[in-house]
Amino acid sequence: MRILLADDHAVVRHGLKQILTDAFKRATYGEARNAQEALDLIWKQDWDVVVLDITMPGRSGLDVLREIKKSKPRLPVLVLSMHPENQFAVRVLKSGASGYMTKESAPDELVGAVKKVLAGGRYVSNALAENLAASLSVNQKAPQEKLSDREFQVLRLIASGKMITDIARELSLSVKTISTYRSRILEKMDMKNNAELMHYAIQHRLVE
Asked: What's the pLDDT tens digit per position in 156-177?
């Protein structure tokens, strides 16, 4: 079995490998430090499962996830993130992830999640499953769930303190396009300015 670990922190990759090696004795591992390294390895080699951090240098984990699903739709991707489940899980599951878990999860939970997605299932924690069921029953959406993936990405970049020109350069888009995204974000989230967006994003742990 071949497992790809994509995370920008070497100590995290090492820890993941140690946890999984105890459960999957014959597994071999690949490691990626950023989005481009992850995509290069996925395109060049065959993998049984990818454990993907949602926040890495360069392109976002959501971008990587979409690229994986385009080129290898059957490859299971387990997203591992420092962000709370209720802020990111629904978005990544809709984008094609086979599971979502936080880095605070117990080691045996990681092993169970990998086994489940390898078997073709989807993994969410019991707490997240209850929250999803509750949100369906009351039909309520958090404000950021109204945003498209690109709008969500721009929201996080604005909230991290980046200027419109810097965001445009990072995403290879025009300043006008980013400004349009910003206007849509403010409208959809019923907010007036960047300060309100930053306060909301920090309060709900959408940025580090």
From this structure: 999 999 999 999 999 999 999 9
